[in-house]
Structures are given as structure tokens and as C-alpha cells.
Amino acid sequence: MKDEDAEKIVEVKAPSLWLLMLESRAVFGLTGFILSYPLLKFAAEGDGHPVLVLPGLMTSDFSTGPLRFFLKGQNFSPHRWRLGTNLGNPKDLIKVKERVIELHERYKKKVSIVGWSLGGVYARAISHEIPEHIRMVVTLGSPYKGLLQPSHAKWFYDLVKGKDADRIDPHLIEKLKCVPPVPFTSIYSKYDGVVSWQYCMEEEKGDNIENIEVYASHFGMALNPSVMVCVADRLAQKEGDWKPFESSGFLPFVYPI
Fold first, then answer.
1. Bond preceding residue 66 cis, omega within 30 of 0
2. DSSP SS3 for 112
3. Label partner for 193 (CA 20 to 30 A): which of 22, 47, 144, 203?
4. Distances from the Cα of 242 to the Cαs of 45, 127, 168, 203, 251, in angstroms?
5. How many angstroms separate the CA atoms of 147 and 85, rounded?
């Protein structure tokens, strides 16, 4: 956890090509998850409240399957986003918002949202629109502070959408810069080879706002055991009793000091 890093954003470049090439290590993520699963069972347990898990750009519910499987085993009620592959369609924001409201009404409990990459951008934006339905937001490698800044995700977005990412709604950009009105945790990695980690952090500090650093690749974030333990710990907190994450109590899961 290094909130002071958020104060050091000056001139940020896209991750190096070396880090981008190292993203290939994510193919071993599933093996790591399976091998560590016996230890993951000792992670924090929830109270059964609903958790909506949102995938990143060009991924679907399939990519978040292991994370949802883990959360279900820890007594949370994880749910898919059910919108197929995330192609960065602005209309998906409306559908995700409707899904959050539907889950809130079904469970009679506020909904937590865990968003990976672009999914986290969606989660942060929605938290400003319907905070009364949301318990907390956790983002995984989500560059909500720099959607228009240099990154390897930007050219990929341009390729997928067939247009310039600079056309993103300016109102959305401004909204993402504001601190969420709900408890918020941003999980980021300095080994992210796709987006600049400096744009995945909240600059302002608050009573229920935090940044947590992990050792993970961008594509392997949702399979990383340390990330899963951290997510479970955050989601397990009681409403109104938020406390900062303490990594020292989670050996053998390693977090940067």
C-alpha cells in the first residue's frame, strides 16, 4: 500500500515494451490459482451480500470465472455481468446500472462491484450515479485517472472500436476524476504491462479510500492469489466499519512494502 505514490504523477508514459511482453506470463495464472486454492480457503469470508464482477476490455464473464468461483466459496454471492464481451460500448453503463439496481432489490442488500480494467472504470462511474445501491467498489488495474493518456490499452481500444478513444464522453472523464461517494479500493501493480499504474490510483485520501499495490500482470490480475485475498478482505468488511487493508497478516501472500 503506497498512497504516497499517487502524489508523484508528473509525466507518465505507457508501460515499456518489456513489461508488455512480460504480460505473456499471465498464461500461467490459472495454474497458480489452482495450486494456491487450498490456502485461499483461509481468506476472509463474507455475509452473502451480492457482488457484481465486471470484465475488462475484450474479455467476458469467462475471464472472471475463477474470481467468482473463489468469492462464492468465501460466502459471497458473486454475479456475472451477462453482457457478453466487453467492447467498451457506452450503452453498457446503463445496463450495468440496471443490473446493480436489480440485484439490490433481489437481495435487499447493497451491491459491491469488483471491476477489472475497463470494468473497474465502469464501476467507478456508476458509483457516482447510484451510490444508494452500492456497498463498495474495488478496481483491478483500472486506469480511471488516465483514459486518454498514453497506454497500450488505448491503441487496442481504438482498434476494437474502429475510432479514436479520444471521443470518449468528456462528462464521463470528469466524473471519473472525482472521488467515489462509496468506500473505494484501487488495486494496482507497477508490473502492469498494459496501462500505467499511476493512473490506477486515487490521488485524494479519505476515510474509506485506498490504493493497494500488488505483484501482478495486467492480464493476470483477476487470477492472482494475492489479489483475490485482498478483494475478499475488502468485501468482508461490515457496512459502516471500513478499515484500511493490512497486508502484514496475510503471509504467505506477498505484497510490496
1. no
2. strand
3. 203
4. 15, 17, 33, 19, 22
5. 19
Distance in angstroms (rounded) separating the CA atoms of residues 238 and 175? 27
- Predicted TM-score (pTM) of this structure: 0.87
Strand order of the sheet with strand 50-54?
77-79, 50-54, 111-116, 134-140, 184-188, 209-213
Q: Which residue has the cell 506477498?
A: 254
Is the alpha carbon torsion for 120, 125, 130, 136 positive or negative?
positive
pLDDT tens-place string over residues 24-67 = 666 677 888 888 999 999 999 999 999 999 999 889 999 999 99
Q: How far apart are CA 81 and CA 205, in angstroms?
A: 30
Q: How far apart (Å, rounded) are the C-alpha atoms in residues 139 and 147? A: 14
List, in sequence order, every beta strand (DSSP E) within 120-165: 134-140
Cβ–Cβ < 8 Å for 92, 122: yes
Give pLDDT tens digits for 68-116.
Answer: 999 999 999 999 999 999 988 888 999 999 999 999 999 999 999 999 9
Residues 213 and 238 sit within 8 Å (Cβ to Cβ): no
The pLDDT tens digits for 195-247 are 889 889 988 777 899 999 999 989 889 999 999 999 999 999 999 899 999 88
Collapsing DSSP to helix, strand or coil, 178 comes out as coil
Apex 234 CA angle, 44 and 79, nearest 5 = 85
